[in-house]
Amino acid sequence: MNLPPRSERSSDAFETNDPAQAEARYRRLLAHDDRDGVAHNNLANVLRASGRFSEAEAHYRRALEVVPATAAIRNNLAGALEALHRFDEAEAEYRRAIDLDAAFAVARFNLSLLLLSAGRYAEGWPYFDARSQVFQEHGELPFPAWRGEDLSGKSILLLPEQGYGDTIQFVRYATVLKARGAARVSMVSDPLLAPLLRTVEGIDTVIDDPRALHAHDYWVSVMSVPALVGTTLATIPAKIPYVGVYRERLAAWQPRVPTQGLRVGLVWKGNPDHANDAARSVRHFADLQPLWSVGGVSFVSLQTGDVEAEAEACSATQPLTLLGRDLKDFADTAAVVAQLNLVICVDTAIAHLAGALGVACWVMLPGTGVDWRWHRAGTGSHWYPKDMYLFRQGEGGWPGVIESVRDTLADVMRGR
To answer: What is the pTM of this model?
Structure first.
């Protein structure tokens, strides 16, 4: 969170994607007045955005020497400490920020992610609700929000949140609501996801046209349900698979899916608009080249959009079947994934789709900003306990992860 310095506009350069200019500006301010706490904070923000977390920490601490009772700076410091994997210190700073400003939604949300990433679900869920103020995705509907009331004989409307992967992960809770007595469960959906959601047990109606929206007894954001039903690590509903595939789509895609060797789907980039995309996505398809040293594998691109052009440009040395551009929706993707032996991907919606289908999936995770649902350590997933393996980035960065994937793939082929 940037705060405006006293003598210049806060972040003109930073907001125009010129961090070097922004850094120089804040350093000039500090050369004039080293007790400008706001400039220290804003310089630290620029440094943190550039991955210079230790330098950022020093400037946040200097800012707090000047203005110690500032919740926003406490929250910012906590973010730098979390990036440095100093989680206990980060938690303490988030809590100090909340003590200073109990209504500070950003700090509450950030604390929730830290707690959830440690598997401390009972502690994290109450703070997780702050995301509604942070993202403001939904307004109020003209019927009550569900807060855990008895659902016997009632209808309830599930609203999607954030990305496609989030919806795929949490739509499993439709069966939980049914088990609690809900007579009818409806789900609002983007048209790209709607056909897939129509295969989910427990969902009676998928609404992909706003004009078809009608009153229910209750509504609830799909990502709020785990908290309302008291989900812990031990009680995650993990009946896999919980999404289905249309027979006609399987038949339509079958001629295009390779039949030789181990069939492996690839996705190397996620949503470019994601705040952590620079860390989550592989730089270029060419960086996956070590995987082609493993014999007996037929690679398939599931990468949608223009990014698939990277694979076309490397086809001479990294041959694969290009399907991504022809995938019209998630039901198409599911029909292809269901015919593969393995999916290798970065942290994006395909990981959740493969997991929900029960198809083996290896997820390559970034070194910073790992999403809470993958937790801080370990190679398995509580959310997808069947055939999901997590490759975590270490000091070797993406090359180290890709080498580990290559070696594991080679082990699999030796065992076939």
So the answer is: 0.93
